[in-house]
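Continuing from the previous page of notes. For each protein in this section, the sequence appears first, followed by its structure tokens. Read the first protein now.
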Amino acid sequence: MAEGRSLRDFVSSRWTELQRGVLGYSTYDRRRFSKYARRTIGNVALVSAIAWGTAAALHYFSVLEPFELLTFDTLVEWRNRTEPPRASDVAIVTVGDEDMRALGHETDGEVTDDQLACGLLTIAEQSPNAIGVDVLRGPEVSELLGRIITAEALPITVGRQCTPLASGSIPPRKRGPVGLSDNRLGCADFPLDQDGRVRRALLVSPDEQLHNQTSFDLMLAKRHLPETQYVEPVSRDEPLILGSAIPNLPDAGGFQIFIDYLPVAIPTIPFRCLASGAPTSCEGSPDPSCPGPAALRRALEDKVVLIGYTGWDKEDHFRAIIPPGLEDCRLTAFNQMPGVYLHAHVVAQLLRLGQGGSRPIMATDSLGRWTWVALWVLLGAVPASLISKQSTGVGLQIVILLSLIGAVWYAFVSASLLLPFSPALVGWLTAAVLGHARYERLPAPGELKLFLSYSRDDRELASQIEQHLARYFRVWKDESSLRIGTKWQKELVKAISESDVFLAIVTRSYVRKCQEDGPIRFELQTASADTDDRPIIPVRAERVSLPASLEKLQWADLTEPEDSSKRAGAADGRSFDLADVSAEEFKHDSPRLARFRRELWEIQERKRRLEDVQP
């Protein structure tokens, strides 16, 4: 049998053994997965940190604020489409343009003190539980109006401005009438969000000395509710805490609440039906649209009644969400609502909360917010870092996006919990994009890198091994991989560091060259010094002692026939027979494999005899 033919047959028939046995395939699989897992975890951690930091930075600089406001509006409007109008213990006496004309005024004018006094007396005769005056008066009022608004028998509360203007002061006409006690004056301010809309109501507003002043709406709600149905302020000396949620309502210690804008049924009575334009008459207009005495009493009895301007010229209107049932109060196409309607809606909400009819809209605290964002960051980073198939990855990310929308919607509808949507969306999207860009998939067997170290005298054996392993590995071999003119030391270091397996074909020539300065010695030193856990596999192709750097490693012995190979492996415990590695798997092929092993041994023997006879 020709030596070359025998060698090719041997390598060709035993490539599976070489792959599984010589390369320690199972051990290598664990290492390969471990290396891949470390890189993937590192990518996920890096991508998550960048995505989370991006969301936090955008939130810090208020870039996401408009999107969060839009999210709130969308959630409220979607929910209101399915919510039926709720009964309310609130009624409104409107002072609109027609009322001003009926009272003998221009639409941009004001009702007189006596006309307002007449209207309040008519309202008081209907036995309401509370009367709220949202018609701002100056410090001086007529004697009749002064007696009415200060009368202890009448449950009247007057709204006033409490927040200083940009100039640092409050006009006298917005401070409220002189002589009214604090329990008759309530702060009627509304905080405006970034886009100028009203989404929150103040329950308490601090003055210049940081003393808390109860809001107009909360005072009216507390007058209507029994004392057992509301909670006193936690501390009247605490300053306003913006953005805090209310755990138990009405609770002035929380300072502000989100306005839920639920559909409510609020009856309205025109002011002209309660007072006429005659300066000495408190009789209402004979307008046929006005309710009769019985209907008027039913509309106002045991209610919280608010009276306020509803005309466009009064500059007492706010951009807000118009809930179903209150479309008639819309002043413009920009969803502007008269202040008295907004106050009535807040009072109705406080009454529901105090009576246990609903729960407040709660916002997550800082820890909960960023934990929530971190969750969606991971849901964006992990799939993008693990899934290679683009269609599968995109499909899964769409499911995750829909899950985010569903979770925010479900939390808002079922638990009145406002979860941050835009920071979570930004974090998820950033993580998904970066994770896909940095994706590193587990290489297939054909993509694994194997560095082949050999002596040039054994290039035939090395070439045969390279040909058969090339179907399953990307073999780096100097003759085929080193280009002319490159710095071989630099290229060897790079190739060894990037390889997954280092395979050394040990022969006499290889051992001799290990003792000389040259590429082989450099390769072994580089592979041994590398801190990576890449396996170094010596394959003894001739009966020779291994180099010092390899003698402590388990080797594959290709020099002995089957029986002697087994004895050698059992004797020193370091070498192993190729067929024994997967004996159970290859039990049907073992006679043929043994024959090829004997042929290889005969080839090596003939080669040694030829070397002995050469001079």
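Done with the first. The second protein uses the same format. Note its length before scrolling.
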Amino acid sequence: DVADETLIRPEGERQFSVRGSTPVEEFNEFFRAELSDHDADTVAGFVMHQFGRMPRRGESITVNGFEFRIVRADRRRIDALRVIVPDVTAEESGDADGERAGADESGTA
């Protein structure tokens, strides 16, 4: 089944379903993120390392602006997570310095 093989799937605005077996490198490419893959090869391993223990279903942790919520897990591994990505449009629209720089340049021409 193709749907079962999908590692990262959109679930709504800024929300994605991510399989625990997703390689950190693939996560970084998909989201243009910079999660470290030094301590783990998969997203599940990365999240477990961030918790410092095996998290339970429903627990969440935020790393580099990404919220990782455990959706499906057993005592040994994380099978599925919900990832909420940072709202970059809010950060970009708050760039008042760029607007002022543009106004200053047009005033001197």
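What the second structure shows: The chain is about 35% helix and 25% strand. The chain has one domain: 2-108. We return to this in next week's lecture.
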